[in-house]
Each structure stands twice: as C-alpha cells, then as structure tokens.
Amino acid sequence: MEGSTGNEVFEIERSPLRAAYVLLAAKTPLGLSHRYSEEDQKLMKDGSWDYNNPNLVVNKVKEILEAVDSATLTEEEKEYWQEILWFWHHHAISCATWRYKDKEKAQFHAAKALEYQSENHPNTITKLLYLLINDKLEEAEEWASQIPIDLEKETADALVKEYKEKGFFE
Predict the structure, then answer these.
(1) Is the pTM of this model over 0.90?
(2) Residue 6 resides in a domain
(3) Cα dihedral across residues 82, 24, 41, 64: positive or negative
(4) Is the pLDDT of residue 6 over 70?
(5) Residue 164: domain span
C-alpha cells in the first residue's frame, strides 16, 4: 500500500512535484518515495545505476526534485523530497568512486548526500564514505568503530579495509 495522508486525498495535480508523481505512477508522497526506491534498487542490483545516463528514471526524478523549491512543498512532501535526494546522492558516491574513479565527483556527491540526509537518519555509511573520500582515515575509523553490529557495521569495516589496502581511486 502506498500510504495516505489521513482522510484527505492527496492531490498530485497541485504539487510542484507533479511530474515525478506521474513518472513513477505514485499517488502520495510516501508512494513517490517507495516507487523511487523500487526503481533505484533494480538499477543497483543489476549494476546499471549511473548518474551519467539521463534516460534512467532515477535521474529524471532527481532532476525534477532538484528543480523544485522545497519551501513550496507540504511537510510530508518535503520529507520524502529530502529522502529521495539523499538516496540519489548516496548512490552517486558509489558510482563516482567505483565506476568512474572520480574523486572530485565522489566528494561532491558525498557532501550533497550529507546535506540532504536528515538529522535522525539511520544510515551511517554516507558519513563514512564522506570521510574516506576526503582522506580522513582516522575520523573514518573512529566513526566506523561506533557503528552498532549489523549489516552496516560489516559494510563499514569492509570499506575501511578496502581504503587502507588500495584506496578508492587507484
């Protein structure tokens, strides 16, 4: 289920994000986020996520969202607008780092991802990547040591190990 805004009916026609709703066939802000995530994950799983491909739906959505002033959105829309833009830039870090070996782009996307990441967001890898990409190994190791044991802890340890063994941009 896409989610709802209570008893009200969300009117995408009035939203500055209308084009994104239409593109993803979403009916609510939560639905927009879910549909975006589904598209994103398909591309990540098959290895075709690429910020240089303007034909990808995730890139089209990102362009729509970035063209909108968040002050014109409802609070619920603003929350998902921010989440989607964080997610896009978070994956752009990986694309710049491992696909293109472009440190400058990776640094740009890491800074943007942190800018969009909400204060209480559970993801810890964005900050870790930001630190490693900016050659702040000691800070990255300290950050990684504070991540609770779970999948992100394993990812964090693997990223620190890879960085120490061969760097990201060699």
Answers:
(1) yes
(2) no
(3) negative
(4) no
(5) 122-170
